[in-house]
Amino acid sequence: MDSFRNRLLALIIGLVVATQSVTLFAVLANTRHEVRVRADERLRSGSAVVQQYMRLRADQLADSVAVLAGDFPFREAVATGHTATIQSATTNAAARVGADLFVLTDNDGQLLSSNSPYVVANPPAVERLMNSATGSSEDVHLVVVGDHLYQFVVAPIQAPNTVGWVGMGFAVDDRLAAHVRDLVGGQVSVLAGAGPNPTLVASTLAPVARKALAAHHDLFRTGQDSQTLSLGRQDFLTYASRLGDARESATIVLQEPMDGVLAAYRAQRGALIGIGGLALGAALAVSLWLSRGATRPIQELVRAARRIQAGAYDTAVDVGGGHEFRSLAATFNVMQQNIAEREARISHDAHHDALTGLPNRAFAERTLEEMLRRTPLPPLAVILLEVANLGEINASLGHHVGDEALREAARRLKQNCAEGDFAARLGSAQFLVLAPECPLQRAALLAERLVGSLRAGFSLFTVSLDLDVNAGVCCAPEHANTAEALLRHVHTALEDAGEARARVAIYRPGREAELRRRLGLAGDLRNGIERDELFLVYQPKVELINGRVRSLEALARWSHPQLGAVSPGEFVPIAEQTGSARRLTSWALEAAIRQMAAWRRDGFELDVAVNLSAPDLLDPHLGDEILALLRAHDVAPTRLVLEITEGAVIKDPALAVRNMQLLRIAGVRFSLDDFGTGYSSLSQLSRLPLDELKIDRSFITRAHERQDDVTIILSTIELAHNMGLKVVAEGVETQESWNLLRRLGCDLVQGYLISRPLSPPDTVAYVEKSRKYLPEEEPTQRKLRALLTGSADA
């Protein structure tokens, strides 16, 4: 042991022994843990199967009871008290579905018939049974009767009024437990009753284990992790879960013998110990052989070191000489292997996501390019999924919950992908799936399945949450045959899914052009306001009773220098989405009030309505801005009407009402636009300082053909008049609509039948013409016809 060679030999052998021991211990510990985890997962899955099976039984019972309750002869027999028919019908119905219990009562709860002597002898049991099935449709409806547990469903008997109640039930007993055992494997037991001493009503255990389980039921709680429970001389891995609804406390207990659970572990343990012994023996033999050899020349070691330095790791260092040099060569080999593994790990980390272990964007793009090089190119589905509410989860529950949710999402994604599919994580909340040999029709179904798997409920850190997942789909070669184009298209499809609030959206060719147009309009809108590319037109509102123009609605129009006329239906939503809505409203208010001042100076004075968006109504500076504009242009506040939508109010009703009240006190009036299409309640409506309601055009267009729309319009008019509000109907385009609204008592109308939106000069001409050709004493229809034709004799 005094020689360097012997000491080095002892060191190598010791290192081998230590490494083998640590490795063996770690592998065995991990194997035992994994075996236990898989067994626990089987038990949990079995519990879910049991719950579903019980719900299916409940559905079967509900259908059978409903059929019996709806049978005419049976209803007539119950109504007339014909005992023989009642007994025959209930017995036959119970026999058809294999029900173990049936009960029939009159409408006062008095028992008419039952096949249970216990129920017949115990009137309180009747009430308990008949009250057992009042939960939701998802409940399994369990009830304890005596020492037995039943799955029981009740239905009313109506002829036509309720004349009685009939219910049927399945017994939860050893037969059911044995059937469940055949479904899920392992041992199955059911405990019923609340409190510290529930009753063991069913079990597949042997008598000794069954008795032991009944004595140890207080050692576990439902919903927790599985635990090892000793029953007699045998240990069981035990998992308990709640069964059924909240009316009865019932517990399903699933168990697997620990001998069976750990059988695979024990077999692997023996194999690993044998392999470790062989490896140790081999290492000892090699070390002895190396110790007897001669050292290799130092020059060989130098050349080997230079080769490693140059990055060549595939050639083992082999030198002659004594064992000292052989030991050094072995160290060189270990070193170059570690370097190669480290470089491989670095390369792996460069192409994989550290959080989920999935390939990253760079790897995904390279893989997609390789798939597209195949000739001929087979169908290839590209699916992009996004967890839309990840930010909310991180903000409310913490990043550790969000990270765990992403890991679970990645795991579910891999589980639901086919063997040849490729899954990757592109961004913080985005996952990409490449599915070869998947045409467009199957791609949509695959995307739906993947979204469904990710949307399924999560339970992380005792927190239950749902992921809001959307997906975009495109395919090669239908949509593109390059990686760059396919990734761009699938992002576009994902955007469409988010905007439409759909689970899955398929790429629509040409959609990028629409998005580029929207982006261009969003950037041009701010400059367009500053360069006076926008202008206002005015649509008259006339009184139905006499046809006179009483007010105008200011509507924004945009004449783009390159694109021409841009519809407000296109640029107004863009303004709201990009934060320019407030700026657009300020421009419209200033332009409308300035025009009102100009008209007033010319002796032309009418009320003008300007539309507000949700950001406008919630802006605390809105009132000061409007009142300042009115003062600056010397316009009376009572001449200005602000049109708001129900959606704007619902976001913050208290703040909206406060800002409205400040303007209302100054004299500004308010109109609720598109009434009936939003979300406001009557209580909110009563608190709003309104002057008029506008009925949405969707109710007006076909009202003369659909009675439901007429009812809605009439109810709205009566509600508004009872609240002291005027009613304006928009979208009036036909004489039938005019006549109907006049008959229903509507106050004002606007629409193409009266006039299209007009420029300021045309507006003045129109109003003057209406005053000239529409004297008060003429009939309304003649006035309107004269105004439209421009002739007083029309």
> What best-fitting shape do the alpha-carbon axes yield?
flat
Number of strands: 26
Structural class assignment? alpha+beta
Task: Give the integer mean of the pLDDT values.
Answer: 81
Main sheet record? 8 strands, mixed, barrel
Widest beta sheet: strand line-up: 18-19-21-22-23-24-25-26
- Beta-strand fraction estimate: 15-25%
The DSSP helix count reads 29
Helix content: 40-55%
The end-to-end span amounts to 128 Å
Radius of gyration: 40 Å
Low-confidence stretches: 775-779, 787-794
Write structural notes for this entry:
The structure is a single chain. This protein has 794 residues and is α+β, with helices and mostly antiparallel strands. Strands 18-19-21-22-23-24-25-26 form an eight-stranded mixed barrel, surrounded by four helices. A five-stranded antiparallel sheet has the order 2-1-5-4-3, sandwiched between helices. Helix 1 runs antiparallel to helix 3 and helix 13 packs antiparallel against helix 14. The chain starts with a helix and ends in a 5-residue tail after the last helix.
